[in-house]
Write a structure and sequence with these properties.
The chain is α+β, with helices and mostly antiparallel strands. Helices cover 17% and strands 44% of the residues. The protein has one helix at residues 92-110, and strands at residues 5-9, 14-18, 22-28, 31-36, 40-44, 58-62, 65-68, 72-76, 79-82, 87-89. The protein starts with a strand and ends with a helix.
Length: 112
């Protein structure tokens, strides 16, 4: 993790995206899309390029998604619900793994 933000540069802008504001990161074909509380940022690249900037709050729950566990409010019926009302649906097997990670994460948080 470097400085608590991801440097995000594309042809039209250069931005600092603070990791505490990130809801999720999506790989959509050749584009990376970062969903934050303030909006969306996209550029060409691979989701793996951003992993070095992230910490333990983030899990790769699918080949196309990295989610911020602090921003998830619940997981139900293959759907992940975020604080701002945004939702994503993932496959059954992937959802089972993601739900187990979320369960462990919130149990660990509740003991601190």
């Amino acid at each position: 993790m470097r400085e608590g933000f991801i440097p995000f540069i594309n042809r039209s802008e250069a931005s600092k995206i603070y990791i505490e504001h990130i809801l999720l990161i999506e790989q959509n074909l050749r584009k990376i899309v970062i969903f934050t509380e303030e909006g969306r940022y996209s550029r060409y690249g691979k989701i793996s390029e951003l992993a070095e900037y992230l910490d333990g709050r983030f899990i790769k729950c699918h080949s196309s998604y990295i989610i911020n566990m602090d921003k998830v409010t619940r997981m139900r019926e293959q759907t992940i619900f975020f604080q701002n009302g945004y939702t994503i649906m993932i496959g059954r097997d992937t959802f089972t793994v993601a739900k187990q990670c979320f369960r462990n994460y919130i149990l660990k948080q509740s003991t601190h």
